[in-house]
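Now for today's protein.

===
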Amino acid sequence: QVQLVESGGGLVQAGGSLRLSCAASGSTSSIAAIGWYRQAPGKQRELVAFMDSGDSTTYADSVKGRFTISRDNAKNTMYLQMSGLKPEDTAVYYCFARTSYTNWGQGTQVTVSS
């Protein structure tokens, strides 16, 4: 089992930046892929960023060039650096870590005002 605790969400003006953090505990050595989803009210859940076991990354077209996923294995923490934020980035952001199944963070609200 892996437990994930997110932090770093909040309210920011359009064009601003935020960094989300997701601290892992438990069986962290079994973590392979990591990533972030988001879900806005009335919209489908969207995979925002993904990093596989080889550190290759994939991003949603809507965030390419603005968001960066990273991880610090020494701190058992993953990050989502978000810049150039837009009102349409407003959503609850969830981190996940894949072991033999998918482990989820509790979600953190990001609100971007115009």
